[in-house]
Design brief:
The chain is built from seven helices and ten strands. Strands 1-2-3-4-5-6 form a six-stranded mixed sheet. The chain has 214 residues and is α/β, with parallel strands linked by helices. It is elongated. It has two domains: 2-138, TIM Barrel, CATH 3.20.20.80; 152-211, no CATH class. The longest helix has 15 residues, at 43-57. The protein has helices spanning 12-22, 43-57, 92-99, 130-138, 152-156, 189-194, 205-211, and strands spanning 2-5, 32-36, 61-65, 84-87, 106-113, 122-127, 160-162, 175-178, 184-187, 201-203. Helix 1 (12-22) packs parallel to helix 2.
Length: 214
C-alpha cells in the first residue's frame, strides 16, 4: 500500500517521481492513496501526481479530500476511475448534504474509533461504493489488454528489473522483457502480474543503454 501527502508549491510530477523512488511497490489488493488536505494545493498538481503514478503502476490513485478543498469539484481528478474519499467528523445527514451533488465513495467518519485487537484509537470509515473501493485496490486504470504473445526468446527470458535508479525510478520499479530483436521492452504492472510477478534479474543502466528499449 502506498500513501503520499501532497505538498503545495511543488511540482506534481516531481512529487510522483519522488514517491515512486521511495515506495516498495504494490501487490494484489493494494493501491496508492493521495492525501489532499493542506492549504494552497493545486488541483493541477494532484492530477499530475495521479497521472504519473498510474502510468507506472497501472492502477488508479484514490484521493482523500475534504469538501472544502478546491479539488473536490474537479472532474479531471474525480473522473469515474479514482475513488473519492472524504473525511468529515459530523452527523451523517450533514455530511451527505455537504457532499452533494457528487456524493462519496468512502467516508472517514471518526478518528477515534475502536477496532478489536488494536489497543489505540483508529480512523474508521464507511464504504459507500464497493466497486470504487475495489478499483482503488486491484483494478487497472483502464481495461487491460491481453499481454502480447511472447516470442520464444521472451518466454525463455527472466523478467529484468532496474538495478539502479533509472529515469527517476527506484531500483526494482521498472520491469522489462527481452524481445525477439534482443532489445528490451518496458512492461507495466498488469503484464508483470500476468507473467507471474517474478522479481527477475537485475540489469544496470549501462546494460539498459546497451540493449536499448523498444
Amino acid at each position: 500500500m502506498g500513501y503520499h501527502w501532497l505538498s503545495p508549491n511543488l511540482d506534481g510530477v516531481a512529487q510522483a517521481r519522488w514517491f515512486l523512488q521511495n515506495f516498495q511497490g504494490i501487490g494484489e489488493g493494494e493501491g496508492v492513496i493521495l492525501d489532499y488536505e493542506e492549504k494552497g494545493l493545486s488541483p493541477d498538481a494532484a492530477l499530475a501526481f495521479c497521472t504519473e503514478v498510474e502510468r507506472v503502476t497501472g492502477r488508479p490513485v484514490a484521493v482523500y479530500c475534504g469538501v472544502y478543498q478546491n479539488a473536490w469539484k474537479d472532474t479531471r481528478i474525480f473522473n469515474g476511475q479514482r475513488m473519492r474519499w472524504v473525511a468529515a467528523y459530523a452527523a451523517e445527514a450533514r455530511v451527505r448534504a455537504a457532499c452533494q451533488p457528487y456524493g462519496f465513495d468512502m467516508w472517514q467518519w471518526s478518528s477515534s474509533g475502536t477496532v478489536p485487537g488494536v489497543p489505540t484509537r483508529c480512523d474508521v470509515n464507511l464504504v459507500e461504493n464497493p466497486i470504487m473501493a475495489d478499483l482503488a485496490c486491484s483494478v487497472p486504470v483502464a481495461p487491460t489488454p491481453e499481454p502480447p504473445t511472447p516470442t520464444d526468446i521472451e518466454d525463455d527470458m527472466d523478467i529484468a528489473t532496474n538495478a539502479e535508479v533509472y529515469q527517476g525510478y527506484a531500483p526494482g520499479i521498472m520491469k522489462f522483457v527481452v524481445t525477439g530483436s534482443g532489445r528490451l521492452r518496458h512492461i507495466l504492472e498488469p503484464e508483470w502480474h500476468a507473467r507471474g510477478s517474478l522479481p527477475g534479474s537485475k540489469i544496470t543502466n549501462a546494460e539498459i543503454a546497451s540493449l536499448g528499449v523498444a
